[in-house]
Each structure stands twice: as structure tokens, then as C-alpha cells.
Design a protein that fits this description.
By secondary structure, the chain is an alpha/beta fold. The chain folds into four domains: 110 residues, Methylthiotransferase, N-terminal domain (Rossmann fold); 107 residues, Transcription Regulator spoIIAA; 87 residues, Transcription Regulator spoIIAA; 56 residues, OB fold (Dihydrolipoamide Acetyltransferase, E2P). Helices cover 33% and strands 22% of the residues. Strands 2-1-3-4-5 form a five-stranded parallel beta sheet, with helices on both faces. Strands 16-17-18-20-19 form a five-stranded mixed barrel. Strands 6-9-12 form a three-stranded parallel beta sheet, with helices on both faces. A hairpin with a 3-residue loop joins strand 16 and strand 17. Helix 12 runs parallel beside helix 13.
């Protein structure tokens, strides 16, 4: 009988990438991958601890998984770093594996299931992840960087992911070549602060340039980037045919006073200058972002400054976060904490602005062409994403998954998701 194994991932794309790689390792070794809701011999929970709310979600999932009798429960991810001793004291948890040893989980679990004694104190490698052959996602994420040196006052990531480190350029290219051989057509570059990539003499722009030189029919997407981590050459690279015209460019606040208290490495003028440079060169370029509302000391004037930047940029999507106190950070000790009522009100206003921006931006594509990479396919309809990272439903004959189709956008769905609709252009 095959051993069954389930996975649950919380938090960022970096966690998703690392889980996908682990899934592939177990799949290759003939373990049967099952859904988290099913009974399984083994359960891997890849946790997040970026906010207190994330902690609570992670704890709930761990408790849920721990109710299965005779199941080997492995807890990893950022919570495993932040609360390692506390988690080790919980009887239902078999192993607590910190981020720096996460790539060794297969060896630990496989040894355990064979009745051997796992090596728990082995030196870890934060970049020792294989291309996901058996993936929980259709795009292939490639980790190029980990950790962060910024130490924003609201963020615990440097404590649980460590200082900034970059993967070797050759290893990245090898990873991408392998992914293309496996049939992937979209590569997502991921990390904690990828704009600060620096391996020996190769910086972020140079590694992107090397990736774009890899032969093949594929496209590159940037997962998320800080507005302080790239130079002028990057603006040229954004126009490359293989580069998706979309950036998730982190804002957090449009108020310079709040950005200073957050210890962000830019101001609103710097941010808007980047956006303007890109918009002037590339029509319909898609910007998405993160915004924190209700940061300690945020006044109505500060909040209006954020709202002004949002209107000015016209983000097509905003991850809106009411500030959540994260213990062990400087912001948690700051005076003038904002009430939950005000944070909720401000978050609602930002979400309404975001919805209006989304609708306006997506409507601008009606009648225009997109290149869709299909994901889910039925008889005469497929879902996927265009190069601008907009979800599309397309119609056509004999549609296939994981295939590029040139389409014309015909309309927009009248629902909350505002998915674009289109039809395939015959060759």
C-alpha cells in the first residue's frame, strides 16, 4: 500500500513554491498525494506568521490536522521558526521543521516511515528545491532569492526567513530550463525581496536578462517587487516579448510620514515616478499592490494621501490589510494605535476604490487582443490569464490546457470577479 500524504499551505507564494517542490519529491517516491480534507498517513502544514491573524489561521490548521489519529504531522514555515519551542511541546506534532531545513522534509518523513531515525539537525539549504513535476499550480514558480535586510517596523520576516540571500545564477537558469522541458509555459520569479537579488557580480536586472535569453516559447512574470530594488535597465526589460506587462509593486502607504514610520526605503514621489516611467513606455501596463491601513499614528490626512495615490495609479487589484499588531516588531510598541473601527472603515474605502479601479481597467481591454495561457478547460470553454494578469474565460473549438491562445476580448462578466470574456482568433 502507498503511504498517503496531504499538504496545507498558508501565506505567500514563496511558501507555495516550496510546497510544490515537496509535493513533487513525494510524488516521485510513489507517495499518494491526497486532499487536506481526506484522511492521510502524513500531513505537512506550511505555516505563515506574518500577522497575528496568520498565526491564528496556522494554529487552527495545525489543530485540525492534529485531530487525525495515527497521522504523522509535520509543521514547517515561518511559524515553525517563530514558535519552534512552543510547537515542539505539542504532542500531536511529529516534527517541527524551520525554514532553513524545509527542503529536507522529504528525507525526514521518508526515514520516519521506513522506521529509521531521521537526521533532524542536518545543515539546510534554502535553495535546494527541485522543479515541481507534480504541482498544485499550473505556473512554475522559481525561487531566486530569500530573506530580507529591510527590517520594516511592522514586519517579522527577517526574523523568520533570515537575512537576504540570493540563489546562484546558474542554478536559476538550470531550474528554468528543466521547467520548460517539463512543459511549463509561464515562469514566476519569486522570493522575499527579489529586487535585491545579488549573486556575485550579477544583480536583479542582469539575472532577468539572462532568463529572457533562454530559448523557448514561454513568458516570465515577476511575483512581487519592492519599489526600491531595481535600476533603469529594468524599464527596458519590461518591454521584452517574454516579459509579462504586470508588476505587483508594493506600496503599503501613500503618506510619506507613514512610510517613514514603517521604515520603507522610498517615498510617494519615488513610487509615482516609477509608475509614470512605465506607463509612459507601455500602454495598459497592469499595476497591483499591497496597502496597509490604520498603521499606528495614521491620520485622516495620511489616509487621504494613500487614497490619492491609489486613484492616481489606478491599480487593478489591491491586497488591503488593516494593520494587525505583530508581536516582536517595533510597530507593536508604537503609540497612537488606531482603533479597529477606524481600520475597518478605512479598509472598506480602499476596497471600494480598488473595485472601481479594477472595473475601469478591465473595461479598457474590451475589443483588444490578449495572449491567454489556459488552465482549466471544458468542452468549448477555457479559463486562464492574459499576459497582463487578468483572468479570462474564452470560447473556441478543441481548446487545450497549458496552451497559448491569441484572443479578442469581447466583454466583462457582470459579477464580483469581473472576469473578462473573449473568443479565440482563428489562425
Amino acid at each position: 500500500m502507498k503511504h498517503t500524504i496531504a499538504f496545507k499551505t498558508l501565506g505567500c507564494r514563496l511558501n507555495q513554491y516550496e510546497t510544490d517542490s515537496l509535493v513533487s519529491q513525494f510524488h516521485k517516491a510513489d507517495y499518494q498525494i491526497v486532499d487536506f480534507s481526506d484522511d492521510a498517513d502524513i500531513c505537512i502544514v506550511n505555516t505563515c506568521t506574518v500577522t497575528n491573524k496568520s498565526d491564528q489561521k496556522s494554529r487552527n490548521i495545525i489543530n485540525q490536522a492534529g485531530k487525525h489519529n495515527n497521522q504523522l504531522l509535520v509543521v514547517t514555515g515561518c511559524m515553525a521558526n517563530h514558535y519552534q519551542d512552543r510547537l515542539n511541546s505539542q504532542e500531536q506534532i511529529g516534527y517541527v521543521v524551520p525554514n532553513e531545513q524545509k527542503s529536507s522534509i522529504f528525507s525526514i518523513v521518508d526515514a520516519h516511515m521506513k522506521g529509521e531515525i531521521p537526521h533532524l539537525n542536518m545543515a539546510g539549504d534554502i535553495f535546494n528545491y527541485q522543479v515541481a513535476v507534480k504541482s498544485l499550480h499550473t505556473r512554475c514558480m522559481v525561487k531566486i532569492q530569500d530573506g530580507c535586510d529591510n527590517f520594516c517596523t511592522f514586519c517579522i520576516i527577517p526574523n523568520v526567513r533570515g537575512r537576504a540571500a540570493s540563489r546562484s545564477t546558474n542554478a536559476i537558469i538550470e531550474n528554468i530550463v528543466k521547467a520548460l522541458e517539463l512543459g511549463y509555459k509561464e515562469i514566476v520569479l519569486t522570493g522575499v525581496n527579489i529586487g535585491r537579488y545579488q549573486y556575485e557580480s550579477c544583480n536583479f536586472e542582469q539575472v532577468v536578462e539572462k532568463i529572457l535569453e533562454v530559448p523557448g516559447d514561454f513568458r516570465i512574470r515577476i511575483s512581487s517587487i519592492e519599489p526600491d530594488g531595481f535600476g533603469d535597465r529594468f524599464f527596458d526589460l519590461l518591454g521584452h516579448p517574454k516579459m509579462c506587462p504586470h508588476l505587483h509593486l508594493c506600496l503599503q502607504s501613500g503618506s510619506d510620514k507613514v512610510l517613514l514610520r514603517m521604515r520603507r526605503m522610498y517615498n510617494s514621489k519615488d513610487y509615482l515616478s516609477i509608475v509614470e516611467k512605465i506607463k509612459n513606455r507601455y500602454a495598459y501596463f497592469n499595476f497591483t499592490t499591497d496597502v496597509i491601513v490604520g498603521f499606528p499614528g495614521e491620520t485622516e490626512e495620511d489616509f487621504e494621501a494613500t487614497s490619492h495615490v491609489i486613484r492616481q495609479v489606478g491599480f487593478s487589484h489591491i491586497h488591503t490589510f488593516p494593520y494587525s499588531i505583530r508581536s516582536d516588531t517595533r510597530a507593536a510598541r508604537m503609540p497612537d494605535q488606531i482603533s479597529e473601527r477606524i481600520k475597518t472603515q478605512r479598509a472598506k474605502i480602499i476596497r471600494e476604490l480598488a473595485e472601481n479601479n479594477k472595473l475601469k481597467y478591465r473595461q479598457s481591454f474590451i475589443g483588444r487582443h490578449q495572449t491567454v495561457l489556459t488552465e482549466k478547460v471544458t468542452q468549448k470553454m477555457a479559463k486562464g490569464y492574459g499576459q497582463h494578469y487578468i483572468p479570462l474565460e474564452i470560447t473556441g473549438e478543441n481548446l487545450k490546457a497549458n496552451t497559448f491562445y491569441k484572443i479578442v476580448v469581447t466583454g466583462i462578466a457582470n459579477n464580483k470577479e469581473r472576469i473578462l470574456e473573449g473568443r479565440v482568433i482563428p489562425l
